[in-house]
Here is the input.
Amino acid sequence: MESYEKKSDEATSDAEQLSEEGERVEKHIEEAKRDWEAKQADTGVPGAVPAPEPGDEEELPPEARSEGGESADSAGQ
Here is the structure.
């Protein structure tokens, strides 16, 4: 019987550690999300433009358009 109690205690300890780690990861994700949203709001941060809303399709600049089904990167090679 003693080994079952020991295994139960270990499982409980593992569950507590996983729960704490999950909370830590959740906080890290929320911090990263807030940081990214702040960067998207700052026009001085290159590359952090907000994603377009569905239905808001903008015309691509000529250099981004592909010809003959090739991507813009492979079209010039």
Notes: The chain is about 55% helix and 0% strand. The first helix runs from residue 2 to 41.
